[in-house]
């Protein structure tokens, strides 16, 4: 068994953008396994916008990471040793873990991860680990897409957005994706089959929506917040639906100012808006995995992973989420699986 591990620990709570000094990278001894525990060598670490929320002491859906504790994150890896019945060495495990090379776990928040023919481990983890279920439940339970409706997806080339748009197409929607830069816009249209792309870096989002969806918008899958959300909301149809799973444009804000959206329209147009967190749907994860895997094997769903090497560079990599620097689901390759 490995004697030491590398791990990122939260040193102080970020103010504004995440600073290198907010987390520390240390080498420490791996404790001896106790009964009911197993040791996992991490293969891939998932970096997600919610990492910034976990670092803060704001109101959130689970306790924040405490100062001095290992940074929290989604992981997939192989079991090296086990003293837990039902968990064997060599087994692939995934779930909520730590920004670390190795993790000692009781199994809480982790479970076996399937190895599917024709789908690589990072592709499967990047799709099934967080983003796929987020897209699936947000669309199925909140967006409720119907053929002929118009769906707008912000952060469309990101991990969740790319899946959301394809689910919309599977259900017969007209899909408009909002992304940053010509390469991302080309990808979501030519590779993923979105009907239209809006480059928020080079064009007026509101004017583009007027041109591409003159009839209005039925579904908004919202990750970004700020002015882009305002542009979309003001063009929603009566009885439109908004799945709100993120407000990433404000995560690094240093003041309490909230950009004014046209929220009175929520009342006037009787819109349904539901904020949601993936863990709300934990009992139904198998449903999402089964459907997503079926769509992938049928060639109806493609996903792109942005894999960055090196656990020691995790703090550098996570900053990409808040600048739009990632292209696809952001993963850190910690070790070869």
Mean pLDDT metric: 91
How big is the Rg?
20 Å
Strand percent estimate = 25-35%
Distance between the termini: 17 Å
Shape: globular
Order of helices and strands: EEEHEEEEHHEHEHEHEHEHEHEHHE
Total DSSP E strands: 15
Oligomer: single chain
Considering DSSP H and I runs of 4 or more, what fraction of the residues is helical? 25-40%
Uncertain spans = none
Q: Count of helical segments? A: 11
Supply the helix-strand structural class: alpha/beta
Which helices and strands occur, and which strands form pairs?
Layout: E1 4-10, E2 23-29, E3 38-46, H1 50-55, E4 72-82, E5 92-98, E6 102-105, E7 110-112, H2 121-128, H3 131-143, E8 150-153, H4 159-170, E9 174-179, H5 182-191, E10 196-199, H6 205-212, E11 217-222, H7 226-233, E12 236-244, H8 264-268, E13 272-275, H9 285-297, E14 305-309, H10 314-318, H11 320-323, E15 329-333
Parallel strand pairs: 8-9, 8-11, 9-10, 11-12, 12-13, 14-15
Antiparallel strand pairs: 1-2, 3-4, 3-6, 3-15, 4-5, 5-7
Helix pairs in contact: 3-4, 3-9
Describe this structure in words.
By secondary structure, this protein is of the alpha/beta class. It has 11 helices and 15 strands. The protein has helices at 50-55, 121-128, 131-143, 159-170, 182-191, 205-212, 226-233, 264-268, 285-297, 314-318, 320-323, and strands spanning 4-10, 23-29, 38-46, 72-82, 92-98, 102-105, 110-112, 150-153, 174-179, 196-199, 217-222, 236-244, 272-275, 305-309, 329-333. The strands form 3 sheets. Strands 3, 4, 5, 6, 7, 14 and 15 form a 7-stranded mixed beta sheet that branches. β8, α4 (159-170) and β9 (174-179) form a beta-alpha-beta unit. The protein is globular, with a radius of gyration of 20 Å. The relative contact order is 0.16. The mean pLDDT is 91.
């Amino acid at each position: 068994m490995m004697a030491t591990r590398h791990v990122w620990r939260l040193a102080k709570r970020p103010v504004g953008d995440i600073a290198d000094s907010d987390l520390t990278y240390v080498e420490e001894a791996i404790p001896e396994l106790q009964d009911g525990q197993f040791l996992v060598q991490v293969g891939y670490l998932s970096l997600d916008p919610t990492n910034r929320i976990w670092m803060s002491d704001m109101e959130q859906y689970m306790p924040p990471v405490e100062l001095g504790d290992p940074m929290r994150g989604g992981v997939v890896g192989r079991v090296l040793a086990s003293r837990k019945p039902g968990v064997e060495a060599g087994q692939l495990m995934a779930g909520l873990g730590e920004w670390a090379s190795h993790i000692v776990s009781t199994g809480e928040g982790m479970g076996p991860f399937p190895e599917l023919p024709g789908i690589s481990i990072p592709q499967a983890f990047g799709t099934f680990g967080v983003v796929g279920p987020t897209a699936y439940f947000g669309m199925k339970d909140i967006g409720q897409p119907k053929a002929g409706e118009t769906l707008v997806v912000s952060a469309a080339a990101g991990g969740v957005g790319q899946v959301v748009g394809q689910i919309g197409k599977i259900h017969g929607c007209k899909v408009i994706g909002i992304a940053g830069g010509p390469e991302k816009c080309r990808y979501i249209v030519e590779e993923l089959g979105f009907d239209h792309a809006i480059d928020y870096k080079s064009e007026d989002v509101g004017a583009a929506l007027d041109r591409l969806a003159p009839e209005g918008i039925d579904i908004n899958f919202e990750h970004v917040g700020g002015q882009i959300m305002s542009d979309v909301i003001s063009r929603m149809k009566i009885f439109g639906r908004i799945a709100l799973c993120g407000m990433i444009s404000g995560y690094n804000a240093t003041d309490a100012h909230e950009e004014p959206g046209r929220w009175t329209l929520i009342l006037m147009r009787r819109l349904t808006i539901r904020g949601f967190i993936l863990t709300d749907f934990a009992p139904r994860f198998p449903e999402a995995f089964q459907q997503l895997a079926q769509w992938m094997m049928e060639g109806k769903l493609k996903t792109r992973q942005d894999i960055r090497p090196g656990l020691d560079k995790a703090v550098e990599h996570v900053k990409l989420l808040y600048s739009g620097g990632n292209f696809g689901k952001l993963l850190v390759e910690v070790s070869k699986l």
